[in-house]
Amino acid sequence: MVLVDALRAFSGIVKAKSEADIDGSVFKLHYRATATLLFCFCLLATCNSLIGEPIRCAHGDSPYLADDVVNTYCWIHTTFTIPRYLHGNGPSPYPGVGLATPTEEITRHAYYQWVPFMLVFQGVLFYVPHLLWKTWEGKTIQSITAGLSAPIIPSKDKKENLDLLREYLTVSFNSHNLYAFKFLFCEGLNLINVALQMLLLDKFLGGAFLTYGMDVLNFTELDQSQRTDPMIEVFPRVTKCSFHMFGPSGSVETHDLMCILALNVINEKIFVFLWFWFVLLIILSFISFLYRALLFCVPAVRKGLLLRRSNLKFKSTLNTLGSYLLYGDYFILYLVSKNVDIMAFTELLEDLAAESRGARNPSAGFPEMVPLQAVGEDEKPGTNFPSKEEVV
């Protein structure tokens, strides 16, 4: 079931783009790149468990022990290592494996049964902020740019659709702040989510994930005789298992088994990659959030960004618009610029500026925003705007 669910989710994420672009590059790293990576890792871990032999335990020449019984028992009841033998403090042929006393401290390893489930669960969590924003956005940008997003648009249709878009933006100016704040909330949710994912994996791996990547880097710089491979410590390839059974006389016998966890060869690489990826994602998400805060606080930065996304020859056009553009107005113009060609967006800004210089008085306010309907499958692009009578 995990494999089927992961395939369905993966196919939904990597499908061809058919909708409006309503977010930024860092946002896409969360719900596209990261979620896709996690679902791919889930498939890899699942295939490794189903196709290969994830665990194999050696039990000597005992005629009472069957390989499949021992392997299944140790897989279900977990295996363990002895920390004392990880650091060369006793005779041991393998790290973490050696003679244990009844009071010996041991480390049990049960995570390997849950790795595919954890990865698919994380992939779903990374998709949640995008799903929330997509629901709140309500296909607004797709609706208002539907007649301008095609590569080739007849001049008559382009002019008509631009006029409708201009009229819609004119009557709805100063009413998009809540729309923009919902996006900021989802971006903040992305940052919180990836930080909580780090803590979740740290708990999942017994407190070894937060420093896992740095431990791996430091390991390569230590002297050969003094270092302990952190990947072997967190994802041991050789472990111990205690198997209890009744002997010929009815007494309980305990068999000390050595188990090889071949799947940890894959797991150690998956999680070291995830550590570096999550750290990079936290840094980029934090920078992106600070950038949004800068745009919110400094109008000049907003005007500069719109100038770069257009082909305006005169900065006075943006200065005119900037006199009454709130953050929400800038944000919806920014999303419009991502979904129409640069010439159409430039013409739109010039028309908005010309209208504001003529009939509009910025201090007088603007009419309330007219409700917008999403584009249906049978509707012609550009026909879902408010009528001219409603606008005026």
Instruction: Based on Cα principal axes, name the global outline.
Output: elongated
- Range of helix content: 55-70%
Number of strands: 5
End-to-end gap: 56 Å
Overall pLDDT level: 80
Computed over alpha carbons, the radius of gyration is 30 Å
- Low-confidence sequence ranges: 13-17, 359-383, 385-392
Largest sheet: 3 strands, antiparallel
Characterize the structure shown.
One of its GO terms (cellular component) is plasma membrane. This is Innexin. Pfam families: Innexin. Belongs to the pannexin family. It is a multi-pass membrane protein. The structure is a single chain. 56% of the residues lie in helices and 7% in strands. By secondary structure, the protein is mainly alpha-helical. The protein has two domains: 207 residues, no CATH class; 166 residues, no CATH class. The strands form two sheets. The chain has a three-stranded antiparallel sheet with strand order 1-5-4. The protein is elongated.
Please specify the SSE layout and strand pairing.
Layout: H1 2-13, H2 25-51, E1 55-58, H3 67-77, E2 79-81, E3 107-109, H4 115-137, H5 140-144, H6 155-172, H7 177-204, H8 212-219, H9 230-234, E4 238-246, E5 252-261, H10 264-297, H11 299-308, H12 315-322, H13 327-337, H14 342-358, H15 388-391
Antiparallel strand pairs: 1-5, 2-3, 4-5
Helix pairs in contact: 1-2, 1-4, 2-4, 2-10, 4-7, 6-14, 7-10, 7-13, 10-11, 11-12, 11-13, 12-14
Keywords: Cell junction, Cell membrane, Gap junction, Ion channel, Ion transport, Membrane, Transmembrane, Transmembrane helix, Transport
GO molecular function, one term: gap junction channel activity
Transmembrane segments: 270-295, 316-336
